[in-house]
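sanity check this chain:
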Amino acid sequence: MTKKKILIVTYYWPPSGGGGVQRWLKFVKYLPEFGWEPIVFTPENPEFDLKDDSLSKDVDPNLEVIRFPIWEPFSFYKRLFKKGERLKQGIVIEKSKMSLTDRLSVWVRANFFIPDPRRFWVAPSIDFLKDYIDEHKIDVLVTTGPPHSMHLIGRGLKRKCNIKWVADFRDPWSDWDILDKLNVSGLVRGIHQRMERSVLNEADLCITVSRRLAQALATKSENKNIPVITNGVDPDDFELDDQMQFEAKFRITHMGLLNEIRNPESLWEVLESLCAELPGFQEDLQIILAGMVSGSILDRLQESKELSQSLKHLDYISHHEVFGYYKNSSILLLLLNQTENAKWILPGKFFEYLMAGQQILTLGEPDSDIQDILLETESGEVFKFDDKVKIRQMIKSAYERFKAGESTQQQLKTKRYLRRNLTQELSIKLDQLLAD
């Protein structure tokens, strides 16, 4: 049977690393099982901070990947920043003593490159793809953001071609808390809102990753039905490298971006008090922070007499290696932004944490999608950032089990969040879209 063709427009694709690449990498992996032939359209020369060659194992060598040139304004930033430092989202915007150049660069990024610095890829991509879609008889077009300029490519193609278009929102757009940190003007915020509304209204189908985010998007859309297809976990990823060696430590591990709006100050204080009170705790403790970490947080920990020797900061761990760290941790740390829209967010790593089966210490808003899934899977609960009592109880209990040599691993309670099953959900939505 001839497979239906689906064209995915995504900024993030291997060898790009980080969370943004995972969702559609896995959808593309499993879509052929459900009657769909994926084709990927992605930049030829993107500017990204994280590279992870291990992700290429999930890319079928027969997959058609169209790599199209992109121009991005980061060379401009490199000239403005000392030593050519890149504008790293979530880190540079929170410098406690930003220079005039830093502030100017952030202001320009926020108020001139709308919706984001990848906007210059929109028009050339539309020009290229409008003919490709017709010539190759593409059935469905997908755009996934952020960066939300990908959706402007979808909007432009929808207006020019007879094509079904799916807009996938991995994060909020006009309600994204990063816009507040970037100090966007009221005028620019309005432009974001109008762009977002036009995408929501013109796409044939919008999907997103969490129930509360779907509800927020639906308030802005003429189409109130926005299906939720969460991120998930692929059991194939849990093939561990037996050569990885870990010493016996009470390991608390955080993966990914750790900036000031996720800084768990109460946790650091609890750990310091436990170092002082529990014999052997300080010697057993290891704090793994893997990924981009705010300089102020690193300074805070390195200046702590109790925690400085326990800290291990790793710039980046490949996706292949990360599962060894999950397995050999006593507690996996999940930190949500201390902002209103954090209740909408379901990070991709959360589902890997669930599959790993270790205890998860989640700090954020209890009224959230994270809390719903933790309770559904019997995997814990969300604590508020300042709830030192519950944080202390959990860590102390986990440490007692560590000292007793007791395993804390548990099995994932549902198969709902496996990548293959989520891709099947997606394929059903795509089939319905073609049938309408």
About this structure: DSSP finds 16 helices and twelve strands in the chain.
